[in-house]
Specification:
two-stranded antiparallel ribbon, 436 residues
Length: 436
């Protein structure tokens, strides 16, 4: 019988592959991460101006869909975390890709604000909850010593999607209209993300007789008197969700998340309309959005390479500082080069946050209950993401521009840098951790 996917196909492929199957898992996480960017706020950013112009919606009303989707993810994530630990990323990611692709294509049919909310909120819930859990759950299950590198590669793919999605949507809009843009986005989500994830994803290396990072399981009977010796186990902390919740590290990382993610989501969504209001053309605004995405991708790779050398705390501090500087620079944009400079700083900060925070959660609390712990933390993250666009939209509608919201974003980013410095790794609840 031919294999149909998951562990069966992996078991069939293992003897035929000249490399560790974890790299296949990473490739699947990359395709899912690329597809994840369909409902990203940077993608939505290029739709803000044409949709609000056609329907007469306020920026606050449009931003509310991002926020409501985040609230939905905040409710769903703690429930999905244990499912990830039991069933693995294959089920979570395949469902997320399929539903997101259908919903983003359905956005092309929007005639009312209610219809927009229904389709976008479901897609946004997937973006903020299931995608995050599945991508980082898969990477952290298959990699320990190479976790930083693998995480940076997964984020590189996500940032590549963030570069491509707004540009392709903008090109489709130039050829036809914003409805064609949503059709383009949804088609890319489905084509790129579903098949590899469904066919090739496996929960953990132990399910197919492997160990993380490609270390080999010792054959039966091997030992001191045999020809083969088992590799030295890599110690890793093992926290349950309740144990993690009792540590200062959990709450400091959560507080850091609460500081940086409103900036990430708020600036991402409103940067294109802000740039247009500052006198830049829609084409320049779209390319500046993609510049920030490109720098996020490069920054993600760089932070993956340097985090082990600098340490998690210093990497968190640097990421927050770049976000704060970018908000200040964005306030003074009057020419394209200034927009590109602000986008570069913003991209560096976002790439750092997206790379270092998942590493911190996995390094600090281990992989055995990663889904449950990360699911609890995602409640904070998606709530913070929900607040950023709404805050920016409300202040813009109240004051007539984005200066007040950008000043707020700068202040909380600098506060986040201080919190990151305080976020030390917790003492394992079991004296030496657990050897995986």
């Amino acid at each position: 019988m031919s294999p149909v996917g998951g562990p069966r196909l992996a078991t069939w492929l293992l003897p035929r592959l000249p490399f560790f199957y974890g790299w296949v898992i990473l490739a699947c996480a990359c395709t899912a991460g690329f597809s994840r960017q369909g409902p990203a706020v940077a993608t939505l950013s290029v739709f803000v101006e044409p949709m609000t112009r056609e329907f007469g919606w306020t920026r606050t009303a449009l931003s509310g869909a991002v926020s409501l989707g985040g609230v939905m993810a905040a409710i769903a994530s703690p429930l999905l975390g244990p499912v990830l630990d039991r069933r693995g990323a294959r089920l979570v990611l395949s469902a997320a890709v399929l539903v997101t692709g259908v919903c983003t294509m359905a956005l092309s049919l929007t005639q009312t604000l209610l219809a927009f909310y229904v389709f976008f909120c479901i897609a946004r819930m997937n973006f903020a909850g299931p995608f995050d859990l599945g991508i980082y759950g898969a990477v952290n299950s298959w990699f320990l010593s190479r976790r930083a590198l693998a995480t940076s590669i997964a984020n590189l793919a996500q940032m590549a999607g963030l570069v491509v999605m707004p540009l392709l949507a903008h090109l489709a809009m130039m050829q036809q209209d914003w409805r064609a843009g949503w059709l383009m986005v949804g088609s890319i989500v489905l084509v790129v993300g579903f098949v590899p994830t469904w066919l090739l994803m496996v929960r953990r290396p132990e399910d197919v007789g492997l160990l993380p990072d490609g270390r080999q399981v010792a054959p039966h009977g091997s030992g001191p008197g045999g020809a083969t010796r088992a590799p030295a186990p890599i110690p890793e902390p093992v926290f349950t969700r309740s144990e993690a919740l009792r540590t200062p590290a959990f709450w400091l990382l959560a507080l850091y998340t609460l500081a940086v993610y409103p900036v990430q989501a708020g600036m991402s969504l409103h940067q294109a309309p802000h740039l247009i209001e500052r006198g830049l053309s829609p084409t320049f605004a779209a390319t500046i959005v993609s510049t920030f995405s490109l720098l996020s991708a490069l920054s993600s790779l760089a932070f993956g390479l340097i985090t082990r050398r600098l340490g998690v705390r210093i990497a968190l501090v640097l990421s927050a500082l770049f976000l704060g500087v970018s908000a200040l620079l964005m306030m003074g944009v009057a020419a394209p080069w200034q927009g590109y400079a602000a986008a570069c700083c913003f991209g560096i900060g976002i790439g750092g946050v997206l790379t270092v925070l998942p590493i911190a959660w996995a390094d600090y609390f281990g992989r055995r209950s990663f889904g449950a712990i990360r699911g609890a933390a995602l409640t904070v993250q998606v709530t913070a993401q929900a607040s950023g666009p709404l805050l920016s939209g409300v202040l813009r509608d109240a004051t007539g521009d984005y200066a007040a919201s950008l000043l707020c974003f700068a202040a909380i980013s600098f506060a986040g840098a201080l919190i990151g410095l305080l976020a030390r790794a917790p003492m394992p609840p079991r004296e030496k951790g657990a050897a995986i």
